[in-house]
Amino acid sequence: MRIVLGLLLSAVITSAQAERLFVPVYVKETTAACRNLASLEYRDRLIREQRGETLSGINSMSAFTGECGNAPEGQWMFLEGYRGNYVCLRPRVGADCAWVRRAAVGEIVELFPGRTFEQGNKNVPCSSWSQVVAKSRATEKDYTQKWRASRPANRAEDFALGVLTGALGVVTGGPDSNDVQHADACVYYFASAQEKARRLVAYRSCPALGANGQQEEDQRGYSAMISLVSDSCVPH
Q1: How many Å apart are CA 221 and CA 23, to the nearest integer?
Q2: What digits encode the pLDDT tens for the residues 10-41?
Q3: Nearest to 59 by CA among 73, 44, 49, 76
Q4: Measured CA distances, 156 to 62, 163, 182 (Å)
Q5: pTM of model > 0.70
Q6: How far apart are CA 90 and CA 119, in angstroms?
Q7: For residues 98 and 91, is the Cβ–Cβ distance under 8 A?
Q8: At 69, phi and psi to the nearest 5?
Q9: How far, CA to CA in Å, does 112 sit from each of 118, 122, 150, 199, 211?
């Protein structure tokens, strides 16, 4: 899994940020990412007007100054907000914002399925949120089972696999098993965090769905997953 966007500078995480729900969002296609929304809007206007030469010059200058870069397909980021057809994402909690096209990112679980930012979650009945919660739990269970099944059965097998793929990597230049396992684990951590965030959104709309300690359990699990990805899956 590629985690880039070196143009974005890290920042200190405040207590308010730590308490907030930063929902993971998946980048489904490589897209431009800019510090300032105006820069991305200007690029899109050049594309619409088919001014390729001007766009090429702007892209070269932006890459040099760090104003814009690319968010690659497969990257996970955290939703900060939106404006029109653009969303503000952070590569990690506390990092600078990057504006990207809404169409380039996957599902945003802060919204009830099928809803837009403009529609919001108002008037969605608890019976509908209950279905979201049930499906989310089943989805996360499936993620967990598949991830565990992909891991080596024991340390001896893990060591042997690492030695073999490490030797092959010297010859082929490919990744060794540790790199692959780490990438797979990061994808699982993000996907699991996304499902927990989905349920936390539902609990906020219908508190009864988070009764009997469910909300507290999911909040602890979400915080743990965010700590994992912050420590080992995103740049500092």
Answers
A1: 13
A2: 333 333 333 457 789 999 999 989 988 988 89
A3: 44
A4: 49, 11, 18
A5: yes
A6: 23
A7: yes
A8: -150, -155
A9: 12, 9, 31, 11, 20
Report how far residue 192's alpha carbon sits from residue 9's, in angstroms, rounded to the nearest whole number.
Answer: 26
- Nearest residue to 43 (alpha-carbon basis) of 58, 29, 30: 58
> Does the pLDDT value for residue 179 go beyond 80?
no
The token pair at 35 is 């510090």
The structure tokens listed for 60 are 């070269």
User: Cα–Cα distance between 4 and 228 in angstroms, integer?
Assistant: 18
The CA angle 131-135-136, to the nearest 5 degrees, is: 115
Cα separation of 196 and 210, whole Å?
12
In whole angstroms, give the CA distance from residue 166 to residue 111. Answer: 43
